[in-house]
Amino acid sequence: MVVVQRKELTLAERLYLPEVLRGLSLTFRKFFEKPITRQYPEEPLPTDEVTRGQPRLVVKDDGNIACVSCGMCEIACPAYAITIDGGETDRTIEREPKKFEIDMLRCILCGFCEEACPKDAIFMSNELELADYTRAGLVYDMEKLKRPKSALQRRIDYIYKLNNRWRSKP
Amino acid sequence: MSAILFYVLAVVALLGAAGVILAKSPMGSVISLLGTFFALAVIYLLAGFQFLAAAQILVYAGAILVLFLFVIMLLNLGAMGSRFELSFAPLQSGRARLAAAIAMALALIGLVAAQRASLKALAEPAADAPALDSLRGIALELFGRYSLPFQAVSVLLLATMVAVIVLAKRQRAGEHGSGEGAQ
Amino acid sequence: MDGFNIKDVPEVVLWIAKIAIIFGGLVGTAALMSLAERKVSAWMQYRHGPNRVGPFGLLQPLADGIKFIFKEELIPEGANKFLFRLAPALAAIPAMMTIAVIPIGTVVIADQVIPFSIAQIDLGIMYMLALGGLSVYGAILGGWASNSKYSLLGGLRASAQMISYELTLILSILVVVALSGSLDLNTIVDAQREAGLWNVFTPFGFLAFVLFTIASFAETNRHPFDFAECEPELVGGFHTEYSAMRFALFFLGEYCAMTVMACLNTTLFFGGPSVPFWPEAPWFLGILAFLVKAGFFLFLFIWVRWTLPRFRFDQLMRLGWKVALPIALVNLLVVGAWVAFTTKGS
Fold first, then answer.
1. Which among A13, A35, A134, C114 is least buried, having the fewest CB atoms inside 10 angstroms?
2. B64 with B34, same domain?
3. Å between C57 CA and nearest CA of chain A
C-alpha cells in the first residue's frame, strides 16, 4: 500500500494569499519573456538535406527533364502514387514522359522513387505544404512537379554523398 | 405622465401576482413574481422612495427570488413542464374560493386604512418628522423611533430560520426524509 | 471658446454625449478585454497571441463580432424559448447599467465643471448593488432554460456562488460607506481626496479591499472561481447551449461586469479620479488616473486567471462562508464601533 505523505502546510501557505502573490509574481516575470512560438507561414520550419518532402522532377540546366520514363519509380512506389505515360522524343535520350503524375494524396514520402531512379531525375524536395480545394488538384502533373536542378541541389549532393559511402572508389 | 406610468405598472404588478398563483410551472411563478417586484420597485421610484426601490430590487429580486429559483432548480420538477401555461386549478375548490374572498376583503380593508392614514399624514405632517425618502431619514426612523419593532422583526426572522433548520433536521433524522421541507 | 457657456447647451445634449462616451467606452473596453485576455495569456505563456487581424491583432474583437453575428442561432429542443432568449439580455443589461453611477472624474470646459458620470444619485452604491444582484438571473435562467444538465449545473453553481459572495462584497463595501459616511460614490471619492488618504491605505480599508477583490472575482465568475463555466466539468456551464450573438451577449456581460467591478474597486478604495500627491491636478489627469487604476484592476482579473488554478466547489463555499464572511462581518463591526466612537455629534 502506498501512503502518500502530504506536506504539512505552513501558516503562510494556509493563508493562501502569500502564495497567490508568489504565483502572480512568477507569471508577471514570464510576461516579459520572449515568445518561443514560431509564426508559421512567415517563419517556416527549418529544413535540411535530410528532410524528405514531396518528390519533384529535376529540370536540367538545358531546360529538359532528366526523366526517360523507364517506369522504375512507378514500380518502386509502394503506394501506387506514380503514373507514367512514356513517348518518343527527338532528343538523344529518345524517350521522355508524355504524362507524369504523382497523386500527392497517396504519396507517403518514403523516397523509394528517388532510390529507384537510374537517371537522377526524381528527388525528394524540402517542400512539405500540401493543400488544395479539390482532390483532383492534389494529383500533380508534370508542370507542377518540375523544379530546376539548382533548387534541389542540396538534396542531390546529399544523396550522392550517401551513395558514395558504399560505392567503390574508381 | 407619471399617473399613466403608475397605472401601467400597477396592472403589471397585479398581472404578475396573478401569474404567481396561476402559472403551471414553478419557474413561471418565479418569473411572474420577478415582474411584480420590478413593477413595485418602479412605483416606489415614482413615489420618490429611492432607497425603498433599491432595497426592493436588492433584497427581493436579487436575493430572495434567487433562493427560490435555487430551490426550484434543486427539486426535480422536470415532469411539471417547462412552458408557461396557466392553470386555474387552484381556484377550483370551494375552500380556495373562500380563502381568496377573505384575502380580498382583508386587502380591501388594508387599502382603505392605508388611504385614510396617508390622507391624515398629508393633512398634518409632523414638523420635525424627517423626510422618509432620504437615507438619513430612514435610518433615523428605523434606529430611533422604530428600533424596537425593527429588532422584533429581525428576531422573528431569526426564529423562523431556526424553526426551519429544526424541521429539516428532524426530517432527516426520521425514517425517509424527502426533500419536502426544502422551502 | 470665448463666450461659450455650458448652460447654453441643452441638458439633453450633455446627457446624450455622456451616455455615448461612457457606454461606448464600456462596450469598447469589454471588446478590447476579450483581446487583452488572449494577448496577456499568450505573453505569460511565451506565445504571441492573436496577431493576424489588423496591426498587432487589434481588430480581432471586430472580427470576432462579425463572426458572432453571422453564426447560426441554435435553440435546443425542449428549451424554454422565452427564457432562453431572455437570459442573455438579463446577463448583459444589468452589468452595462451599473456603469452609470461610477464617477470617472470631472470635465472642465471653459472653466465650467461638468461631472463625468451619467448619473449622480445619492444612493449610487445601492443602485449598483441592486443591479449587480440581478446579473445572476442571466446565468441561472439561461442554465435552466437550456434543458441541458451541464447548463443546469452551471446555473446552479453560478447562483450559489453569487449568493455566497454577494454578502462579503456588500459587507466590504459597507466598510467604505461607514468610513466616508455616504452611499454616494461622489462623496466617497471626495472624502478620500480631502483626507488625502485612499481607503486602501487605512487598516480596515485594506482588509475590506482584499475581501472586496476576492468577492468581485467570485461575483463576476472569474478564475479562480469560474464554476459557472468550468470547462472540463461542465463543457461551457450555463452557456453550453448558446451560440452566435446570444453567446456573445453572455461574454459581453461578463466583461462589462469585470470592467464595472474594476471601476468600483478604483472608486471605493483607490480614490477614483484623484491623482496621488497632487490634489489640484488638472481634470484630464484625473480621468487618466481613473483609467490607469481601473486598467490595472482589469489587468489583475486577467493576470489572476492565468496564474491560479480553479478552486474546488466545496473549497469555494468554505472560503466564502467560513473565512471571508466572518472576517468581513468582524471588520464591519470594528469599523462601525470606531466610527461611532470617533465621530462627534449627530
1. A134
2. yes
3. 13
Residues of A in contact with C296 (CB under 8 A): none
Show which subunits contact B, needing at least 3 CB pairs below 8 angstroms. C
Cell of C114: 461638468
Do residues C34 and C68 lie in contact, with contact meaning Cβ atoms separated by under 8 Å? no
Q: What is the ipTM of this complex?
A: 0.75
Mark out the alpha helices in chain C (DSSP H runs).
Answer: 11-44, 60-70, 81-97, 124-145, 149-180, 185-195, 203-219, 231-234, 244-269, 283-305, 313-318, 325-342
Asked if residue A142 belongs to a domain, the reply is yes
In a domain, A59, yes or no: yes
Comparing alpha-carbon positions, the chain C residue that sits nearest to A34 is C46
Measured CA to CA in angstroms, residue B160 lies from B166, C54, C164 at distances of 10, 61, 20
Amino acid at B52: L
Specify whether B6 is located in the same domain as B20: yes
Helix (H) or strand (E) holding C112: strand C112-115
Instruction: Tally A–C CB contacts below 8 A.
Output: 36
In a domain? residue B42: yes
A30 to chain C, minimum CA–CA distance in Å?
A: 5
Kindly state whether residue B180 falls inside one of the protein's structural domains.
no
Give residue B13's domain range: 1-92
Q: Does C131 touch chain B (CB under 8 A)?
A: yes
Return the C-alpha cell found at C118.
451619467
Find chain B residues with C-beta within 8 A of C160's C-beta: 70
Residue among A27, A32, A39 minimizing CB distance to C303: A27
User: Does A37 contact C210 at a Cβ distance shorter than 8 Å?
Assistant: no
Considering just the CA atoms, what is the radius of gyration of chain B in Å? 20
Same domain, B147 and B62: no
> In sequence order, what E strands does chain A have?
55-59, 82-88, 95-103, 122-124, 139-140, 146-148
> Is the CB of C262 inside 8 Å of chain B's CB atoms?
no
Q: What is the pLDDT along chain C (346 residues), one digit of tens a residue?
A: 455 666 677 778 888 888 888 888 888 888 888 888 888 888 888 888 888 888 888 888 888 889 988 988 888 887 778 888 888 888 888 888 888 888 887 887 767 777 777 877 778 888 888 888 888 888 888 888 887 888 888 888 887 888 888 888 989 998 888 888 888 888 888 888 887 788 888 888 888 999 999 898 888 888 788 776 766 777 777 788 888 888 888 888 888 888 999 999 998 888 878 887 777 778 888 888 889 999 999 999 989 888 888 888 888 888 888 888 999 999 999 998 888 888 765 4
Instruction: Retrieve residue C66's grid coordinates.
Output: 462579425
